[in-house]
């Protein structure tokens, strides 16, 4: 039997404003038994320091504490550069794509919790 990974889509902007929502959602899936999580960053265009901390926290819980697997997919070049500069690329597993047959997509969406600045 082929086990499937759970794909969770990250928000466009992964910041302190929505970090907790994504963290709690993924931790709930872990509590339900998910041990292979793919965080889909294909539509994520900005990650602040709290978003980077979230990635490190999820890696610690899933991989080091539970013996599971965390993969980041769809990582744009700018985010790859940021992960390299912070050396998180040595701790996190980055993948380009995964075949749909190997991934169960979670329909939940993290809130962007961001509004464009008012026009001047």
Portion of residues in beta strands equals: 15-25%
User: What spatial form do the alpha-carbon principal axes imply?
Assistant: globular
Give the mean pLDDT. Answer: 86
Alpha-beta classification: alpha/beta
Describe this structure in words.
By secondary structure, the protein is an alpha/beta fold. It contains three helices and seven strands, in the order ββαββαβαββ. The chain has helices spanning 19-31, 49-65, 77-85, and strands spanning 5-9, 13-14, 36-40, 46-47, 69-73, 93-95, 103-109. The strands form two sheets. The protein has a five-stranded parallel β-sheet. A two-stranded parallel sheet has the order 2-4. α1 runs parallel beside α2. It is globular and about 30 Å long.
């Amino acid at each position: 039997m082929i086990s499937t990974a759970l794909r969770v889509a990250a928000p466009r902007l992964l910041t302190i404003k929505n970090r907790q929502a994504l963290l709690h959602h993924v931790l709930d899936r872990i509590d339900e038994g998910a041990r292979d999580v793919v965080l889909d960053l294909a539509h994520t265009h900005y990650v602040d320091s709290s978003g980077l901390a979230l990635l490190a926290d999820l890696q610690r819980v899933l991989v080091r504490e539970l013996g599971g697997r965390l993969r980041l997919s769809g990582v744009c070049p700018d985010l790859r550069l940021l992960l390299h500069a912070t050396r998180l690329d040595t701790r996190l597993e980055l993948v380009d794509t995964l075949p749909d047959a190997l991934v169960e997509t979670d329909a939940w969406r993290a809130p962007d919790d961001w509004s464009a600045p008012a026009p001047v």
